[in-house]
Predict the structure.
Amino acid sequence: MQQIKLTENIYYVGVNDRRTELFENHIELPNGVSYNSYLIVDEKVALIDPVEAGFIEEYLFKIKSVLQGRKVDYLIINHDEPDHSSSIAAVLREWPEVQVVGNAKTFAPLEAFYGPIENKKTVAESETLSLGKHTLQFFMVPMVHWPESMVTYEQTSGIVFSNDAFGGFGALNGGIFDDQVNLAFYEDDMRRYYANIVGKVAMQALKAIEKLGGLEIKMIAPSHGLVWRSNLAWVIGKYTQWSKQESEEGVVVVYGSMHGNTGVMADIVARGAAEAGIKEVKVYDVAKTEVSFIMSDIWKYKGVIIGACAHYANMFPDMTLLTHEINEFKPKDKCYGLFGGMSWSGGGVKALSKCAEEGKWNLVADSVEVKGAPIREEDWDRLYNLGKAVAEAVKG
Ligand code: FEO
């Protein structure tokens, strides 16, 4: 059987998930996702992070085909979240003597999910664990993505098993390593993963990157997505840029519209931004495009113009999820603008303004509220000028 090797004795034993429609049951997965796991075969055998439980048969088959009757000695838990840990019971049934390795924060949540674990080993910051020729070293990266998160560094190969960090959506389509694929295909799904999973803890992600900077890293093996061995500078550069929240020149116009009038307004706003010289103008209907895609572009671009029609005395309902996510993830370095249509007494722009106030959005232009449809020249001009003002703030 053709094994996937990172080095002579380190194997990729992860799985692809093209079945799950929603990651964490709320983020669309049009390209699937991979749950990566790695096996180090030495005097002792270590398995690094299991996979989602629904893939256990394929997973165990892959491990057994490498081990040929040997048993797993250590199961390293870099992260408790069930997309990785939910197969732990099956792994322990298969190899009951496995020692489960985690840190001081690992086991309470893990046992809350799966019940008591008898054979535990708790490791501290920088502690090492010898497997024979290979030596594992553990570094805590709290909140990337949960409080117990850590990464495991294998000293002889220079591989860092980086947990969720440096991961991305997208099943691995044959190519497992970064030099086997077209990176452009994965970049958008990596940023979407970052913006919706890691973005809330961007500062901690940056600290983790800085912490790992002291290691001699030859390969980055995350828990999702590609294994990085040839384009380390590229992926570290991208993660650093996203963690520092360095926005690119561009404007995202996103609207919620019941009968199309606020949608027409969005086009006028977008035209103003384009005429002001912005080449990257993205227009989204919040009822049609799932929020994770919009958040990904909001993370990327500096300008964000949000429009909502009134729905009773509030905003268009689908927009509330996006504004919630913005105020939860708090993307920085943005220039915001607001607009929307009134039904009989308004409410959309008022509700957006409340969100802006709560989230301390940097509003760079007066908000525009339009009665009915944008059929009066003065309304058309106000909307056009809103797009232009945000564009100029982005460029300025
Ligand atoms: Fe891939 Fe935070 O779990």
User: Anything to note?
Assistant: The mean pLDDT is 95. Residues 79, 81, 83-84, 145, 164, 223-224 surround MU-OXO-diiron (CB under 6 Å). The longest strand covers residues 248-256. Residues 377-395 form the longest helix (19 residues).
